[in-house]
Specification:
Radius of gyration of chain A: 22 Å
Shape of chain A: globular
Number of domains of chain A: 2
Largest sheet of chain A: 7 strands, mixed
Number of helices of chain A: 14
CATH class of the largest domain in chain A: Alpha Beta
CATH superfamily of the largest domain in chain A: Vaccinia Virus protein VP39
Largest interface: A-B, 29 and 29 residues
Strand order of the largest sheet of chain A: 5-4-3-6-7-9-8
Distance between the termini of chain A: 56 Å
Order of helices and strands of chain A: EEHEHEHEHEHEHHHEEHEEEHHEHHEEH
CATH topology of the largest domain in chain A: Rossmann fold
Structural class of chain A: alpha/beta
CATH architecture of the largest domain in chain A: 3-Layer(aba) Sandwich
Oligomer: homodimer
Helix content of chain A: 25-40%
Chain lengths: 373, 373
């Protein structure tokens, strides 16, 4: 018997979760579902209409039905008849009022384009979310939330740069220490762009990288001016792999050599330069953390992001990147760095921290460290 | 009675054609339909399945049925019941075999996503084709043709740059003399990008600007490598509004000042840097020109493009731009320019020509002209 939140069910899990499972359920996505429930609770609507167009086992929707009191309708879709059957049984076993649920069996994109006005739409496919973005954002109502998961993190982070450019239209940057953050910022850019082309503003309100996937929640607004305001936060990342200089610039600000050390600069993007989190939303999620049965990991993740979001920087530093760039033999412990740079830790990397100091200041403090070593 | 090609019908045309017409037919798009028929004749398939998802009056499909012998099926879709009714009557009046036609009445994008394997799909909406691109290219078979019209030419050409950036993700450039060509290259980039994100290669094979619209035909191929080869031809345009220097570069080749005169360079893009025409296709269309009843304008346009395509350059020059930039009081007639620069005329502008000479050579010949003046 598997239990997740208020849901119990029987399912034979293979050793490796794959898309060939008859009914798809991934136990490693529990944190993903935990946090989506928590976010749902913060939405300023009563009577939510939520949609999971690739519903699979349906555990996510069922948890939303059982663990929040805000759903008016849970709309499930999956091409697989077995999955829909499994979900139906699950609903029955948990005594869910049938009038609260709709079950469809259609191609996800066609389904999304035939329905409108959802408060929340889940895009959690195998691999890249790109084929579903345009259809999904059309199905959302104003102020609704688009929840996107991407499991093609190695593409977004730079292991396959030509695939990243083809699929997302941006160049990643594996050779910086915050390559995962670059990846999530490229994913955000793609969603922003897909919205903007149809005069919608999709703004990221909560983003994270966890295990094998990236996750970003977007709030949708409508109108060209709002879309332009979001688009204005898209640009390029300049990065120096010698002195770790990094800066976000617009197209006209691109330059070739590092203003600090003269090294040839690397470029990534276009990507999202704006904030990864809406701090008010984070605070609301934190306050509500007792309202949902969160796993220990979910809680830890949320806690770290809440601290991290106090410093809204483009990129972070890691101990090993600083050690390598400045030839610090044995870098001091991370707490020392946090003190020196007035830093906060990042959830992206166990040895990473954000700091608001300027690059000039950063270099000076690193050199002080070197002299003391 | 209106006659176009082999089609005759009665319809009250308002003075200004608008989307509020009960049944939409635009007599100014005759050349658009002429050339699509001609292109259809060159396709290496017998028994074509063609689709017009926003079929309107249906005159285009009916002409394809009557004026080519290559159709197996004409698939018509339009949300408007009046339009479908009009098309049905038109078919009857022209004694068309009903088994060759399918008529649907659905949202164009939903319709396109529920059908596959068309040899030819027409995207000819009011305004921008952007909302239809992703759905349309999915419905095409390999080696099929996507025919795209865009009537938002002022957006693409730079009158509303923020709208262009929002809708197409690129910066236009109104201050160069070939701003229309920049616009069509931005349109092509958008289609290439929409294809590439789904691992399709959409390559432009025939492009033109005429009256109030841009028109581009794309051949679809599948697979990441083919998509990458097409994407490799996307980049940026550098332009100097002092000495008329222009160059296509990739992201890493962007620079700020003109290598010839030191002036600050303007940047447009990302946009298509590759060829606007497949010359073999153009030749085939030219050979077949007698097989379709073309208007005089269609023939003139095709003839000029056939000459123009012999010089595959990024951008062209106009007499007035040269006159203004180099203070030629009274520029000599265009034939003189064609001789001096070994140029060919362009269909984009009556006073424009393409030349293959380098910018150095261009400047030298302009200065010779100045000295003789």
């Amino acid at each position: 018997m598997i239990r997740e939140g208020k849901v119990c069910f029987e399912l034979n899990l293979p050793e490796v979760v794959s898309s060939r499972m008859e009914v798809f359920y991934n136990p490693h996505m529990r944190e993903n579902r935990d946090l989506s429930l928590l976010l749902l609770l913060t939405l300023p609507f009563e009577k939510l209409k939520v949609c999971d167009p690739m519903g699979a086992s349906g555990v996510r929707l069922l948890r939303m039905l059982l663990e929040t009191q805000k759903l008016e309708k849970a709309v499930y879709n999956d091409l697989s008849a077995e999955s829909a059957q499994f979900f139906r049984k699950l609903l029955k076993n948990h005594c869910v009022d049938e009038s609260m649920v709709e079950i469809h069996q259609e191609d996800a994109c066609v389904f999304l384009r035939r329905h409108r006005d959802f408060h929340y739409v889940e895009v959690d496919p195998f691999g890249s979310p790109v084929p579903f973005l345009e259809s999904a954002l059309l199905s959302l109502r104003r102020h609704g939330i688009l929840a996107v998961s991407a499991t093609d993190t190695s593409v977004l982070s730079g292991t396959y740069p030509s695939t990243c450019f083809r699929r997302y239209g941006s160049m990643p940057l594996l050779s910086c220490e915050f390559y995962h953050e670059v990846g999530i910022r490229i994913l955000i850019k793609k969603v922003v762009e897909e919205g903007a082309k149809l005069d919608y503003a999709l703004e990221p309100v909560f983003s994270y990288s966890y295990r094998h996937y990236f996750r970003v929640f977007f709030k949708k607004q409508a109108g060209p001016k709002r879309a332009d305001r979001v688009l204005a936060q898209v640009g390029y990342l300049l990065f120096c792999d010698r002195c770790l200089y990094r800066a976000g610039v617009k197209l006209e600000g691109l330059q070739n050599s590092c203003p600090y050390c003269g090294n040839r600069l690397l470029v990534a993007g276009p990507l999202w330069l704006g904030s990864l989190w809406d701090r008010e939303l984070l605070e609301a999620m934190w306050q509500l953390r007792g309202a949902v049965e969160l796993s220990e990991n979910s809680l830890k993740l949320l806690k770290r992001i809440r601290q991290e979001a106090t410093l809204n920087t483009l990129g972070f530093y890691t101990l090993s990147a600083i050690g390598k760039a400045f030839k610090l033999g044995q870098p001091p412990p991370i707490q020392k760095f946090l003190d020196i740079f007035k830093g906060v830790r990042t959830h992206f990397s166990g040895e990473g921290f954000r700091t608001a100091v300027s690059h000039q200041e950063f270099l000076e403090r690193v050199h002080e460290l070197l002299q003391r070593a």
